[in-house]
Amino acid sequence: MDTLCGSGKFGSKFWDSNLSVHTDNPDLTPCFQNSLLAWVPCIYLWVALPCYLLYLRHHGRGYITLSHLSRLKTVLGVLLWCVSWADLFYSFHGLVHGRAPAPVFFVTPLVVGVTMLLATLLIQYERLQGVQSSGVLIIFWFLCVVCAVIPFRSKILSAKAEGEISDPFRFTTFYVYFALVLCALVLACFREKPPFFSAKNIDPNPYPETSAGFLSRLFFWWFTKMAIHGYRHPLEEKDLWSLKEEDRSQMVVQQLLEAWRKQQKQTARHKAAAAPGEIASSEDEVLLGARLRPRQPSFLQALLTTFGSSLLISTCFKLIQDLLSFINPQLLSVLIKFISNPTAPSWWGFLVAGLMFLCSMMQSLILQQYYHCIFVIGLKLRTGIIGVIYRKALVITNSVKRASTVGEIVNLMSVDAQRFMDLVPFLNLLWSAPLQIMLAMYFLWQNLGPSVLAGVALMVLLIPLNGAVAVKMRAFQVEQMKLKDSRIKLMSEILNGIKVLKLYTWEPSFLQQVEGIRLRELQLLRKAAYLHATSTFIWVCSPFLVTLITLWVYVYVDPNNVLDAEKAFVSVSLFNILRIPLNMLPQLISNLTQASVSLKRIQHFLSQDELDTQCVERKTISPGYAITIHSGTFTWAQDLPPTLHSLDIQVPKGALVAVVGSVGCGKSSLVSALLGEMEKLEGTVHVKGSVAYVPQQAWIQNCTLQENVLFGQALNPKRYQQALEACALLDDLKMLPGGDQTEIGEKGINLSGGQQQRVSLARAVYSNADIFLLDDPLSAVDSHVAKHIFDHVIGPEGVLAGKTRVLVTHSISFLPQTDFIIVLADGQVSEMGPYPALLQCNGSFANFLRNYAPDEDQEHWEDSRTALEGVEDEEVLLVEDTLSNHTDLTDNDPVTFAVQKQFMRQLSALSSDGEGQGQPAPRRRLGPSDKVQVTEAKANGTLTQEEKAETGTVELSVFWDYAKAVGLCTMLAICLLYAGQSAAAIGANVWLSAWTNDAMTDSRQNNTSRRLGVYATLGILQGLLVMLSAMAMAVGGIQAGRVLHQALLHNKIRSPQSFFDTTPSGRILNRFSKDIYVIDEVLAPAILMLLNSFFNAISTLVVIVASTPLFTVVILPLAVLYTLVQS
After folding, report:
1. CA dihedral defined by 436, 441, 442, 445, rounded to 10 degrees?
2. Are 324 and 362 a contacting pair, CB within 8 Å?
3. Which residues form the ABC transporter domain (predicted)?
């Protein structure tokens, strides 16, 4: 480098320690400034360029139009290139005129000029790729300014010292260069407008990070607006931003699902490759068995494939933060040497303190970026797992449904998915903890020598013990999840049958069953908590024991080894870094253990058999037919005998087909087979066109009546009106408080059975499908309603005329109007043909008619008698349908029939009140031309209240309630134990400080044994107090879990039936799964972490104030500032 800088008047050495270090006025040599200092930004840009270009190539978002800002940036880049080349041409000019400059004056302008040209081109390329704010260029311009600050000062000082400017041209060009790079840095901080062809953001509350600049992302300025809004007003759901596109469940679930399906395909290919090996010779099996052994699809591999790139980015942040954490101990060593050297220049101390501050700031910035990245990954991971499990639950076979209970599936989506989210923040410790331990040991070796091997040996000895603890905790975890599944399954059954349970007063019996399972669950939790407390004691003591043994060996291995301030406090600083990974290892192992159990549970569930989506062919079919079955044999499960066998059915397009038969003959199974919900053993099934299905028991959503009918489709007022009118729902809308905006309770609790069936039918009519599968929709309604529905919807003159309709029914009065009839008996087609032809056969169909004819005669008798009444049938039709599902009146009894008719008239009059100020008003029927008024708000039709969530800070009463559940004495004991642990920690550090200041005799310290013994006692006492506090918290946490679950269970069981009618069962079930999990396994460790952080902060403040009382002046305004920020 000295050769590059030349010699003589304009030459200089590359490095001069007397000029740069050992002086009160430090400076760098001109050679250093003109070479390495000028090259640093150029080296950065050229190194970062390949990766950045690759990123831009795959993340283009359209180009940005050429704005004034972009033009100005480009002009500055061109000017910087011109300034650099002016320096280069000036050097050539001097060479031509006999003033040969040093080679560095040729190399540096050339390198800087080419780099500036590259930066200018990169500005335009980023514009073409839609980059609004370039972090790469901001860092480049920042490095240019920082590296130019030193020459900026040096040239001024040199000119003042010499009284003149030695090289006016280069002096001038440098300051022009400095002004230009400073302007370029300022302009780079401004954000460009969005890309020209980017989609217009119509979101009323878009996510601000997506459009934030580099500096805004780096310092989280984009979040400031939300923080200020939250300070002024309690945050509500409407205040939250919309999610980024890549964070939404549609994207995340689909990506994870594709990765999982890829794993399943690879496993299927592996099994196919292994199949020939099963019939190979024994020698072949020996040679190929290991290679061709079938394997299961790996859900872990699917997770890594989906979220691996994001985890890699978080790994980079964590790596930088870990490396930065080891700089401060080295700077501390330099600072202690500076303090102990009275002849050292004062600027050394300022420089070291500034570097320590800068390092801490960088570490904080990187760490917050890491946390932001890793917690977003955790949320996406949980979202993806829940979505995949939910989709799997929709397609599992019936045999799997028998084995996988609702409680197990709920736990998979709530507890097991949450365990993965809890694991993600600790995941990088798998490589970070060994790296930090190795680096800490390396620097400790540099400081204390081979004595550090004693500490390494201790850590190695602790690994088997920790492994045994992990195995035992995993066994507890498996057993606990089984008990949790059983408890949630039982709670689900209780909620589903709560009416019957309350009717027969079975609450005490079921309470005992739930509490019995809960008791066994708490016993396992108590064992696991004690085991975790023991593990915590080991790992809290291990850093201290490593420190103690290392210092003990260092002091006693050689009498000449003196424990001075530098060795002691640098070693303690390194041991504190070592303490972090060692303290986090128990939590990592615990989370890994829980996640491994959850992984196996999820993978087992996702690997279960699914319904074959190809069992129903939907693309090809014989011309003129909508449904065909050839030699079809179907079963509900592989281990059950076939329910339907040898079916040969052909349904023409647009036909109305009735399916009849005795109870249990397979009519509903036939519909399920056409839907693909049964397992096909033989034959082929062809269904051409879209399908609408009306089940025998109506499925009603917990939403408005309109939303139930639309079922996610856009509102077409004309078609919507037609569907309501055809399904006889218009009069119901007049009776409902909010019209079609009335909220329907869970499972249709505020609708009668007939109303539910008509809403289900209206949903199918509105879907405008090609094929309608109607599974006995007329059985839940009265004869009048059935006739109306058949005439206006299903029959030859109904709105579905021309569509293919398969109607399962027992009503023989409608059979003559069908195109042909399928008669089932014992799972087979016994007869099939038009109504007249089947009557002449005198076979199964004739038997069916004889069985159901009396019922039909009674219904016709009711019809005729109702017609003799002097009222309008259509006027009371819907009220009768509603009443028939809520009374025990028997239509066959003439006396009760009259009572029923009178009651319906009264109900009809009452329902009209309000329109005529309490006077009975005539009921108006909506004609076909009337339009349904669609209201935008659910004004008075709301049934299920939205779940309330507290806003603002958590009230003290909540903490007080939890403290009472834990036990006030237990909480007080935990706080006192943590206070004692902090006091022991302070005592150990003070004792170590006093030890380093001991007087020395013949270069040896006195009282080494006493100092070491007291230090060891304080450390062991600290570990014991932590273990006792962890055990006390375990006892208190289990007690709180028992008390709160018991109170919740008793409260819900004794709630009135109206509560269950208006509260979704999923919300109640979530309280017993997710929330109880939080109380059992999350709150107690969180409280311990809070107490640990609080007492650590208090002990640190006490030590600083005791040693430097002036710090009190600083801590008071800082405390006020932190309180304001926290609030």
Report:
1. 160
2. yes
3. 629-851
Measure the CA–CA gap between 697 and 1011, rounded to whole angstroms. Answer: 81
Could you tell me the CA-to-CA distances from 543 to 176, 457, 530, 1094 in Å, in that order?
A: 56, 12, 21, 20
- Beta-carbon contacts of residue 333 (< 8 Å; ≥ 6 apart): 447, 566, 570
Chain-centroid distance of CA 903 in Å reads: 55
Candidates 1075, 957, 1093, 1090; CA nearest to 1033 is 1090
- Say if residues 328 and 557 touch (Cβ distance below 8 Å): no
Alpha helices in 396-428 (DSSP H): 398-403, 406-411, 417-427
* Whole-angstrom distance, CA of residue 43 vs CA of residue 111: 9
| Most confident range, picked from 551-555, 898-902, 1008-1012 | 551-555
How is residue 635 annotated by DSSP? E
Cβ within 8 Å of residue 506, ≥6 positions away: 500
| Cβ 85 vs Cβ 109: under 8 Å | yes
Per-residue 3-state assignment (H helix, E strand, C coil) for 92-121: HHHHHCCCCCCCHHHHHHHHHHHHHHHHHH
- The class of domain 956-1126 in CATH terms is mainly alpha
Of 1002 and 7, which is predicted with more confidence? 7
Length of the chain: 1127
pLDDT band at 904 (very low <50, low <70, confident <90, very high): very low
pTM for the complete prediction?
A: 0.73
Dist. CA 461–CA 712, nearest whole Å: 62
Residue percentage of the chain with pLDDT more than 90: 25
Where residue 776 falls (left for φ over 0; alpha for ψ -120 to 50; beta otherwise) is: left
- Residues 774 and 804: their CA atoms lie apart, in Å, by 11
What does the alpha-carbon distance between residue 189 and residue 218 come to, in Å, rounded to a whole number?
12
Task: Give the 3-state secondary structure of residue 1015.
Answer: helix
Are 866 and 784 in contact, with CB atoms under 8 Å apart? yes
Q: Spelled out in words, what is the top-level CATH class assigned to the domain 625-851?
A: alpha beta
Cα dihedral: 550, 552, 558, 564 (round 10)? 80
Tokens matching residue 308 = 């691996």
Q: Pinpoint the alpha helices (H) of 163-294.
A: 168-188, 214-219, 224-232, 249-274, 282-288
Pair type for strands 691-694 and 820-825 = unpaired
Is 342 in a helix, a strand, or coil?
coil
Question: What residue ranges do the domains of the chain occupy?
Answer: 2-197, 214-242, 243-269+297-426, 625-851, 956-1126
**The token pair that represents 685 in the structure block:** 């099934």
Alpha helices in 558-606 (DSSP H): 565-606
Cβ neighbors of 555 (< 8 A, separation 6 or more) are: 561, 563, 1005, 1008, 1012
- Indicate if 956-1126 has the same CATH topology as 625-851: no
Give the whole-angstrom CA distance, residue 45 versus residue 51. Answer: 11
The alpha carbon dihedral of 144, 145, 150, 156 has a sign of positive
Beta bridge partners of residue 661, listed in sequence order: 824
